[in-house]
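Tutorial handout. Part one gives the primary structure; part two gives the three-dimensional structure as tokens.
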Amino acid sequence: MKNIIFTSSLLFSFFFLHAQSVEVQGQLKVTTVNQNNAGMDVLVQNTDGTVAKRDANTLGGVPSTGIVLSEIANNTGLINAGFTNIGNVPLSFNLSGLTNISTGIWQGISNSNAPSYRSGNSAVWTGTEMIIWGGYANETTLNTGGRYNPSTDTWTSMSNINAPSARVSHSAIWTGKEMIIFGGLDNNTNFLNSGAKYNPTSDTWTTITITDAPTIRCFHSAIWTSTEMIDWGGATTGFTKLNTGGKYNPQTDTWTTVPNINAPISRGDHTCIWTGTNMIVWGGDANGGETNTGGIYNSSLNTWISITTFNAPTSRSGHTAVWTGNEMIIWGGGVFNNETFDYDNTNTGAKYNTVTNVWTEIPITNAPSARSGHIAIWTGNKMVIYGGTFDYSEGIYNNKTHEWNRINTYNGIQQSNNPTAIYTGKEMIVWGGNSSEGAIFDPNNTNFYLYKKN
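Part two.
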């Protein structure tokens, strides 16, 4: 498809009219012009329904049938000025410098045949489906789940024959053909080190061995290396923290111990990401309280190296981490306050470069409010923050421009603490937390509303 370039009027508020340059399959750039839009082109809807570009200077401003774009659906300023809303159009555009613009498009998903209400569940993306499993609801742990297909907006139930026992705060990873569940906490506060593999093609569960498996635990981390699942850290009996782990090979159904020589101190509720060659562990709740230390584990060499704490984010747990391709971004989280029995949360963060072993602070201007228990996904060039404790002001961090933008609000889902989310490569699917509802968020496009001059 060829690129099509045109300009028109773009209204972002009651008072300001801007010029808009749109390149289809490209970027939208905005510059301010005067109220009459003199010397700029406008879009005009012809009587046959086609849209054409005309010079507003020769028409004395926006003419009858001229089209402008509004950021909001019910723009009373435009309506009072003699415009009519005729629909909307999704646009992808350059947000640099436009930190006052809310972005993204939400849409609800079906809850027909969806799993029951729960929190503390896991979610993985298979490439075509999101799989939800386990969790906790009504003071009971669960061993049920469901598969959601965004292409058809349908849920498919999962067999629970040979499924792992009911649990919460377990780990789940996707291997490319199977989901592997490990560890967690059951309804009787028993810590677990059992697990199973789920094949969505055959809708079958296969128990995994516990021979040489890591000791019983919950609040641990798990990543997939392309050949092995690495489980590390977490809490065990009495909620004592751990700094041990193991590597599981699903082809051979065998475990190999991860060494703890030079490993980070014991912790749970930390973050863990896979770089393609290394596993990075950072932050979390250590036996003496929150920490801002971390370590890098090289699976091939079977060795650990420490991460510098110079310019590192402050100690925290309940934070998030994403991998950009060359840096890890830490954001949010908090420290437990023994006087208030609550968390003192933050909205600060930093980027860690594994090559230079250097931390770089990210800005807090226009950042979402302080929180923990939120989710973060990486789109390829932006980090999306959603949910968590207290105030639910979501945001998108652009790693290239180092700017935050607001996310458009969505009333079709109850915003929640500890929701789960996956990224499909185009969209974020959010589900669970404090509800059985879900939604799809497109971070790459924003709806603008077409207003035609009467």
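Part three, for discussion. Residues 1-40 have pLDDT under 50 and may be disordered. The chain has two helices and 46 strands.
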